[in-house]
Every structure is written in structure tokens, then in C-alpha cells.
Specification:
Elements lengths: L1 E5 L3 H12 L3 E5 L3 H8 L10 H10 L3 E4 L2 H5 L4 E4 L15 H13 L4 E5 L7 H11 L6 E5 L9 H6 L4 E4 L3 H10 L10 E4 L1 H32 L3 H9 L20 H14 L5 H24 L8 E5 L14 H11 L3 E5 L4 H7 L4 E2 L3 H5 L4 E4 L11 H7 L4 E4 L6 H6 L3 E3 L5
Parallel strand pairs: 1-2, 1-4, 2-3, 4-5, 5-6, 7-8, 9-10, 9-12, 10-11, 12-13, 13-14
């Protein structure tokens, strides 16, 4: 089947490349001419492990192409996926749906053959109704249906998540749309990936509810970590103890500096705005968002405390800037608030990240970027490990100690053993470990 994927950002590019790898003919569309030119040249606009090879393979096979011309991409397409951004709207926190609605209007103006229009962007409840109205009023005279098919891709593991998903959610009451999407996802039947068919509004809500629940688990274990520090417990043991309960599970029970990224912050906020619109308060999610915001600055204070008295003028190395490893995504990364807290205290900040320094430089121009982890450590009075990149797991501790002015380490991801670090002469601070 020919598929038009409108939006060649994170979701659109990964989804389009994976659909092509299944054997579909996919055209990825984007208004950004420079981005399309880079893709045509084989250069990825984002960092995602395995993506460059996946794209190159399918372009060479003739199953994947890129264009700025939506009309040509729609020609003969049986499905049109909308995968454009829905950032938080400035001023009120609602999801900004202007890109989604603009695509819907242009699709309605150019659709010449029957197609199912599929919203893959994360959108609030009721967005599909508005997309359907816009397409219908934009001039098309051919048969179409609108469905919701939210994505559940983890940055850094997106290709694996797409090809071996926990579930595929399809929201539509239209039988034809069900048949089309079943055919599109037929290659995944061999992996026994369950397809959950729901109403369109339920599908839209599922994505927000899933992200809010995962954000709640992260925030919960972070607060338990704070309590462990007060009472002398070990949050690693606590997390394992509760995670072994099948009703709870071990995933997302890893304490750290708070959640960030392209999904959890904006999606929890958008869900709260929807709850306000419908006068149905979500008090738990409200608390989660507030606690997470305050936690990031609190982690900055934890690093400042490791410097001892008179932190002004001292130097801190930040290892890891992106909100998680295996991505270059800096959106709402905890490192931003941590660096700002340090700078506000008069601390010099030097940082290193394997993939995120270019986007980080634009966000935090006062932070000096180093060429390697060891370069960042030179002359540092303390180091904070902010993102759990594999490259930081086996640092040469003796070389690290020699490079630093003072051997103070703040492990905000808890992948160092406190007793081992202290036996090697480091003043080690971790999260929730007494």
C-alpha cells in the first residue's frame, strides 16, 4: 500500500521508515525544504540508533522517498498519516494543534482518491472530530475516514518499539478504516502484536493516560528516594522490592533528576488542560507535574551542596545533557534546570554529552562544551552524572580523580556503587541511598 507520512520529524520519520521496511511504499512529506534536502542526501535530522541504516536501505529499495509536495504524495495513497508536532501552546499550556489542522485542510484540498486519514500525532480528545470536519469542508469529494493511531515510541529504542510493539491502538468506528489499518499493520501479526480497536476518542485518551501514568511512577519513586535519604533506606532496594510485585512492575521505578523529553512534560500538561475544560480534575497528575518541576531545581541544589561552603567560582562538570541516553533530544531535559541553578550560584559549568551538545549549546550558551568526558573533568571541583549514557558507566576512575581538583561525584542516575566509589577516594552523593 502507498502511504503518505506528513511530518518527517521523530515520529514521522521513524514510522515511515519502518512501514517501508515492512514493504509498503512510503512518501514522507515535510514543509522544511532543508530537512528534505538532508534526508535526500542520507543525513538524518535526528539521532536515533539504526535509523540512518534503515532509511538508506529502504530508499535504495525504492520503497521510501521524501518530498515537500503534499499533493504528489497523496496521489494513490491509501492512507495518510498526520505526524506533525503538537507542542505546548504558549500562554495556556494547551496542545498547539495548528500544524495538525493545517495538514488536515491541505489534505482536504488535494485528496483525489479514497484514503484513510490517520492522526499519529499526540492530540487531545476530540481532535479527530475537528480533523474530520476540516477535511470535509476543504473541498474533497472522495471517500475518506479519520482514525487515531497514537505512537508509543521510546526515543533511543524507537525502531524496536515500532517493530515489536506492546500493542497497536486504532481508534475508529469505521469498518473500512479498520480494514485499511489492519492491512497496514499485517506484517506485525507474526510478532503477535495485539491490535486494540477502540473509539477514536478513547484512542486519543489512551496515549495521554499512558504517559501520565508512567510520569506518575517516575515521580513517585523520586519522592520515595527523598524519604530514603531522610530515614537511611536504600531506594534501589525499595524499588526492587515493590517492582517484583506483578501488579506494579519494575519499569519506570528508577530514581533520578526528574522526567523530561518531548512527551511527558507537554502531555501531562495537555491532559490537565483537557481535564479543566471538562471540569474533571486530575489531582494526581497535577501533583506529578508540580513535583517534577521542583525536582529539577532541587537536583541543582544537590550538586551545589557537594561543592561545600562558598560554591561561587568553583567548577562543575556535567556528564550527560539530553533527557535520556541514545538521543540528541534536549526538550525539557533536567540538565537545563540543573545547569541554570549552578550558574545562578556563580558556579562555572562545563559539560559533555555524546550526542546532545549542538542542541544544548543553543539552549544554554553560558555552559562550556567539552570535547570529551575527561576534558570536562579537568579542574572540576565536582562532577554530576546527569544522563546514563553507556559511555559513562566505565570511566577510568583513577584518570577521573587525577583530572579533578576535588573528587566529588554526584550520581543522579545511581549507576555507581556508593561503597565502591568511597573506597576509591571519592566523596560520592547518590539518589535515595541513605
Amino acid at each position: 500500500m502507498k502511504i503518505a507520512m506528513v511530518g518527517s520529524g521523530y515520529v514521522g520519520l521513524v514510522s515511515g521508515a519502518c512501514f517501508a521496511d515492512f514493504g509498503h511504499d512510503v512518501v514522507c512529506v515535510d514543509k522544511d525544504e532543508a530537512k528534505i534536502a538532508r534526508l535526500d542526501a542520507g543525513r538524518m535530522p535526528i539521532y536515533e540508533p539504526g535509523l540512518e541504516e534503515l532509511v538508506a536501505r529502504n530508499v535504495a529499495a525504492g520503497r521510501l522517498a521524501f518530498t515537500t509536495d503534499l499533493a504528489s504524495a497523496l496521489d494513490g495513497a491509501g492512507a495518510v498519516f498526520i505526524a506533525v508536532g503538537t507542542p505546548s501552546r504558549r500562554g495556556d499550556g494547551h496542545a498547539d494543534l495548528s500544524f495538525v489542522f493545517a495538514v488536515a485542510e491541505e489534505v482536504g484540498q488535494n485528496l483525489r482518491n479514497p484514503a484513510v486519514i490517520v492522526t499519529k500525532s499526540t492530540v487531545p480528545v476530540g481532535t479527530g472530530d475537528e480533523v474530520e470536519r476540516i477535511v470535509a469542508e476543504s473541498g474533497t469529494s472522495v471517500k475518506f475516514a479519520v482514525a487515531s493511531n497514537p505512537e508509543f515510541l521510546r526515543e533511543g529504542a524507537a525502531i524496536e518499539d515500532f517493530k515489536r510493539p506492546d500493542r497497536i491502538v486504532v481508534g475508529t468506528d469505521d469498518e473500512w478504516a479498520r480494514e485499511v489499518l489492519s492491512e497496514i499493520y499485517r506484517p506485525l501479526f507474526l510478532n503477535r502484536a495485539p491490535i486494540l480497536f477502540t473509539s477514536r476518542r478513547s484512542a486519543e485518551l489512551i496515549k495521554y493516560a499512558a504517559n501520565a501514568f508512567l510520569a506518575t511512577k517516575i515521580t513517585f519513586i523520586n519522592e520515595i528516594a527523598d524519604l530514603c535519604e531522610k530515614v537511611g533506606g536504600d531506594v534501589q532496594d525499595v524499588a526492587r522490592g515493590i517492582g517484583l510485585d506483578g501488579r506494579i512492575g519494575s519499569k519506570f521505578l528508577h530514581p533520578g533528576p526528574g522526567y523530561g523529553g518531548s512527551c511527558f512534560p507537554k502531555d501531562t500538561l495537555a491532559l490537565l488542560k483537557t481535564s479543566e475544560d471538562y471540569d474533571s480534575p486530575l489531582r494526581v497528575v497535577e501533583a506529578v507535574a508540580k513535583v517534577n518541576d521542583s525536582r529539577k531545581r532541587a537536583m541543582g541544589r544537590k550538586v551545589i551542596d557537594a561543592l561545600g561552603e562558598a560554591p561561587r567560582g568553583k567548577r562543575v562538570a556535567l556528564l550527560g545533557l539530553t533527557f535520556k541516553p541514545n538521543t540528541d533530544d534536549m526538550r525539557d531535559a533536567p540538565s537545563i534546570a540543573i545547569a541554570q541553578a549552578l550558574l545562578d550560584a556563580g558556579v562555572e559549568v562545563v559539560a559533555y554529552d555524546p550526542e546532545g551538545m549542538e542542541p544544548a549549546s543553543a539552549i544554554m550558551p553560558e555552559v562550556k562544551m567539552a570535547g570529551s568526558a575527561y576534558e570536562a573533568l579537568e579542574g572540576a571541583d565536582a562532577v554530576a552524572i546527569v544522563t546514563e549514557w553507556d559511555a559513562f558507566r566505565a570511566l577510568d576512575l583513577q584518570r577521573m580523580k587525577r583530572a579533578m581538583t576535588a573528587p566529588a561525584v554526584v550520581g543522579l542516575r545511581n549507576f555507581c556503587e556508593p561503597s565502591d566509589m568511597r573506597s576509591r577516594g571519592f566523596a560520592y552523593t547518590s539518589i535515595g541511598r541513605g
